[in-house]
Amino acid sequence: DTLRHLRAAEIELDIDHVPLDDPDTYAMLRRGETTGVFQMESAGMRNLIKVLRPDRFEDLMALVALYRPGPLNSGLHTEYAERKHGRRQVIYPHADLEPILRDTYGVMIYQEQVMQVAVTLADFTMGEADTLRKAMGKKDLDVLMPFKEKFIAGAVDKSYDRQLAADMFDMIVPFADYGFNASHACAYAVVAYQTAYLMAHHPVEYMAA
Length: 209
Known about the structure:
It is a single chain. By secondary structure, this protein is mainly α. The chain contains 13 helices and no strands. It has helices spanning 2-8, 23-30, 43-52, 57-66, 69-74, 76-84, 98-101, 111-122, 126-138, 141-157, 162-172, 182-201, 203-208. Helix 4 (57-66) packs across helix 12, helix 8 (111-122) crosses helix 9 (126-138) and helix 10 (141-157) runs antiparallel to helix 11. The longest helix is centred in the last third of the chain and has 20 residues, at 182-201. It starts with a helix and ends with a helix.
């Protein structure tokens, strides 16, 4: 409807190819002016946006994934924001996990990261890692325990410390309660960004729509 209003004003806009690094869009978001912006309207989300101060598309993905009961209750949203702005040190459980967690400042946010940790640390195949992800989602300890034994054994076989492996497994199990997959967060973030872009550049047509 917004694009139809714009066409009536002889403005052609391809919403699927707007730049994802538009300064005006991010400036509007950082001010918390998100009424009408998909996924970004609630008071709690606006507060999180002001703390996190997004300046890249990956931050919007993280916002969508972090504004859920699990991450909020465990303080991951604050940890991400503090690390992003250099107020807390970015720490990795092990240097080998830096490539997996670098884009999220050492904070595990997405299901894919859990799978990659299992592959890197415990020598799981991607298929086994996906089975682990599904098992975590069932929240059944009887189902999970064999995976813990395999995870620790695989890590020890790769010369990682047994305690590190046990700690990492214990860290990722609760994650199953709330972990988004990155593709889901990305799809949400695209629509959020598109609506924010329209709001920033064409507020009359967008709010009329």
